[in-house]
Amino acid sequence: MTQAPEVIRVRGLAKRFVLRKDNSLKERIVGFGRVGRRHREDFWALRDIDLSVRAGETVGLIGHNGSGKSTLLKLIGGVLDPSRGTVEHRGRIGALIELGAGFHQDLTGRENVYLNAALLGLSKKETDARFDEIVNFADVGDFIDTQVKFYSSGMFVRLAFAVAVNTDPDILLVDEVLAVGDESFQRKCLEKINELRSENVAVIIVSHNLGIIQELCDRTVLLDHGHLLHEGDPREGIRRFREVLATQPRDSMADGGAIRHVEVCGADEQPKESFAPGEDVIVRVSLDGIGAFPKWSCSVGIADTQGRTVFATSTYQLAGEEWIDATGDLLDVVFRFEAPALSDGRYFVSSSIYASYPPNQPVSQAHQAASFEVVSDERTLGPLRVPTTVRIDPTT
Amino acid sequence: MPFRGRRNGGPTESSVGAIGQVAEIVRHRHALSLLIRRDLKARYKDSALGFLWTLARPLTQLAVYVVVIGHFLGAARGIPDFAIYVYTGIAAYTLFSDIITGGTGSIIGNAGLVKKVSVPRELYPIASVGGALFNYSIQLVILILATVVFGAFPTSWDLLYAIPGILLIVVYGTALALLLSALTVFLRDVSYIVEVVLLLLIWLSPIVYSWSMVRDAVSPLAGGPILMEVYNANPLTLGVLALQKAIWVNGQGAEYPSDLLLRIGISLVVGLILLAVGHWVFRRLQGNFAQEL
């Protein structure tokens, strides 16, 4: 893939926002000159970003909220202008930034499709040729001639996505879009993105859903406070991202008591990444400084790639008050999930420590601190694995 | 395929400048026509009478002016076919005010698109111009029908005055629409200022009174000739006068400023310069649109 042509080239890119606190004429006139300066504040959303994306590559942008992911995407999409440096691209961009924002509520789905496609650079003839495909993909049926204000949010998103991916983009920018819509549509989107990738479309995805990032991307770009922290292998990128999250200041931990480490192990208590369906999963939560709390409990939650908690439990729920006053600075809490009924896919483990009793506000949290996957050849939807048989009865 | 890009906070596609940007707008003409249609459709969607509502306001204005100012106050006495005279002016004023009101709010109104799609942003104010021209064409049809009813259908070569008249209004309107649409993004007060100024503008042009009434009132004053020149320099005044000369045939005896065509020509040149300036300002400011909206 290294031979593919470069389609996005970002050099020394920086973006400064000026935060103004006055926005009316009166405030400006009153605050003109010296006073006006005080109302201005510079904020660098991005600094010194170099990036190159080739045709057919899928790149994930990750980082915490406010790290500059969406700003970078908007700069690439040409919606914002850089303060320094250059952003260049080749070919047609299909942007899914703020999905459906370009739809006019009072127009019908059909009118919106034509308008959006035209803005993305398609002629009427080209749109005509793709129209059926778009409507089929969006699965809105007869609603296509209804004003979009009457659409369900799902239909709205589906139609917007369908337009963007069916306009023959050379570059597709996707911002946190896959979080919307039901699961079957998400799957359809992911399949479409995979299909576009095989057609040599460069895809850039912003998502907080690390599962999707890991599943789709060839490469991740990790941003932290506007700086490019890591670029390369998604596994490494996601690992570094977890480190960044872990080093974020946590006020609630001021009084000690942190989750040092969360590890997923197999039945032999050795670290393990990939599980067969029905295999025992052991989660080991290593704690540091828990002695500071007279009473505490530890919870563990397992979430799927869409961030839905599939299962959660805690020492409090499992053992009541038995261990709430266990002491010792370094402790491991080991949960053993026996034959979890999880279906194919990647799962993320989060853990929290509670110092109050009964537990309410966590004093320490490790969000998506570890992950594992369940590999099977069963093709079902949903996180639950249910052994199923089916038969067909003739009705008389 | 060549790389296209932006750098250093300059205007979008800075390397190609104004001419390139105009070519870019022409390339997006299909999108432009759909934007115009969208604006027109969306405005009267769900209303039973639809487009007929575009006529409600000017026709009401017409009725009020003809009855109150024309007959109660007696302005109609020196002006034959007063209704046609007034309507010619009102339609021209409505075109100008539609372009400017629509244009001023166009970037804010299309915030969703501005933040999402990378097309020349000039499309949005220009779409307002297109919408206003469409509404004007409906009014022209009504106006022409009225001339037929009054038996005053324009047949003379003076009809050609309509072309520079409309052109003048469109050029100034577009220049101001570009300028104001960009300024409004940064200073929301602009739209309120525009509203007030437009309200004033209808009285600053010979729409409900005749040009000669102004001349007769102003000329005896000290500095009258200069005031008159200022009054005549108003592009809306010149546009309205040209359209009256074209359409209001029973006013052949009416007086117009000397060298009307020359004045229009000069005004048009100034307007084109203003258009270039407006576009330049627009291009300077548009880089920050998405973050200000």
Concise summary:
The complex is a heterodimer of chains A (396) and B (293). Chain A is of the alpha/beta class and 396 residues long. Helix content of chain A is 25%, strand content 33%.
Detailed description of the structure:
The complex is a heterodimer of chains A (396) and B (293). Chain A is α/β, with parallel strands linked by helices. Helices cover 25% and strands 33% of the residues of chain A. A six-stranded mixed beta sheet of chain A has the order 5-6-7-3-8-9, sandwiched between helices. In chain A, strands 11-17-16-13-14 form a five-stranded mixed beta sheet. Chain A has a three-stranded antiparallel beta sheet with strand order 2-1-4. In chain A, helix 4 packs across helix 5. In chain A, 41% of the residues are buried. Helices cover 70% and strands 1% of the residues of chain B. Mean pLDDT of chain B is 86; it is low at 8-15. Chain B has 293 residues and is an all-alpha fold. In chain B, helix 4 (82-104) runs parallel beside helix 8. Classes of the chains: A alpha/beta (396), B mainly alpha (293). Strand 4 of chain A pairs antiparallel with strand 1 (4-7) of chain B.
